C-alpha cells in the first residue's frame, strides 16, 4: 500500500508485540511505543551510572586545563560555526571563567575560512601569545598535522569532539567517546556541548568548581540542533535544559533576549529545532559566526538585543536564498535524474547543508551540494537512511582534500580538477547500495478525541519526550474518515469527518492536494507537534 506521495507503510503495532512485563509496567499504549523504538523504558527516565574514566582522556584533559589555569597560561578556545560548536565554546568559556582563568580567548572560524583547526589559526595564536593551551571544540579529531604544528610551536592541545575518527588520531589529549570501542553508546551519542557539560559536572563532583544548574540549557540546544540521537543521556540533558529555558533561567543574556523576543509560551524540543536553532545557525551560515558566539557569551542586555535584531535579518535572508537555490537544484535533478544528486555552483557555503538535506529528503537520493571558487569545491552531503556516507566517502577519500561527518551527513572539499572523477566514483559507490525505499512507520491506531480526552495517553507521550533523532514523534492511524477541503489564503484547509463529526483541521500549503480523494473514505496518519497544546499534524493519507 502506498500514499499519494509514494511511501511504503509499516504498521508497527501489527508487527511488534510488546513484552508482557513492559505492558504491566507502562500500560498497553506506552509499552507499544517503547517496543516500536526498541526501548525497555522511556530514555529520559533511565538510570545512568558511569565513571569519568569511561570517557576517553577526560581525567587528562582536566589536569591539563587546570594546570593552564593555575599557571596563568593563555587558553585559546577554538570552536565551530554551527550551534554545537557555538554552544560548546560558550560553555567551556563559562567554565574556564568560573575556574578563575584570566587569559581565555574564544574563537570560532567563519565558513569561508574552512572547517576545523587549520594551520593559519595556530600560527595566529602563536603570534598573539607564543604558546599556551589550545582547546578545540567540535572539531580536531582528524587534525593530525595541525596538532603536530601546534606542539612544535609550544602549545599543548586538548580536543573535545564527537566526530568519527580517521585511521590516525592526533597526538594530543583527545576527549571523544568514539575513539573507544568500550565506551557505552549513550556517550558516543553525545554532541560536543554535551561532552563539555559532562566535563564540567566531572570537575564539580571532584570538588574543583561549582557550575550553575542553568548551564544545561546549552547542551539542550546543541543536542537538538546537531540532531544527536536522543538516547538516555541526551534525553535527560534536553529535558532538563527545557525546564530551565521554560523558567527563563538561562545560561546567557543572549538566550534570555531570544526567548523574550520570540514570545514562546512553553518550549519543547520542536521549538529548539525549528525556532531557536535556525536563528543561532544563521550567524554561521551567513559568515557571522563570531557574532553568534558573542550573542551567547555577552553579559550586556542591550548588546544582546542588537545581536538578536541582526540575527533575525540574517535568518530571513538565509531563508530567501535557501528557497531559491533549492528550487534551482531540484530543477537540475529533474533534467538529470540519477541515483545520487551532485550539484556544483557558486552557492553561499552556509546554506549547503540545508539544501543538501532538503533535496535528499525530497528526492530520496544522496545529495552532494558544492560551492566552488574555481579552484576548490567545498561541499555538504546528506543521505536517506540505508546509504552510509562515511563508508561511501571513505572508499574515495584520495580524491578529497578534507572530509568528515556521520552516516547521513558529511562535509568535504575537492579540488576542481578532481570533481568529474569524484562524481563518477561517488555514483559507483552509491550504486552498490539497493535503492532506498521510503518507509512510513505508524505506531498505533488512535482517534484524535482519545488523544485529547484520555489523560493516560497524554501522560504517556510526556513520559516518552523529548522526541527527535532516535526517538521519533509517534505517528497515529485514524481510519474510515472522509476528506473535504476549502481554499484559504494560506493554501487549503483540510477537513476530516467521521459519522458527520469534524475530527481534525489541517492546513496544506498547496504542495500536493489530492482532489480525487474528496469524499472518499481514507486512513490518515497524524502526529502530535506539541504534547501540551496537542497540535495535531496530518502527515499522510492512505487508500487501498
TrEMBL record:
Coiled coil: 297-324
Keywords: Coiled coil
Gene Ontology MF: a single term: exonuclease activity
Span of domain DDH: 75-223
Domain DHHA1: 343-430
Recorded superkingdom: Bacteria
Pfam families reported for this sequence: DHH, DHHA1
InterPro entries: DDH_dom, DHH_sf, DHHA1_dom, SSDNA_exonuclease_RecJ
PANTHER family: SINGLE-STRANDED-DNA-SPECIFIC EXONUCLEASE RECJ (PTHR30255)
Designated name of the protein: Single-stranded-DNA-specific exonuclease RecJ
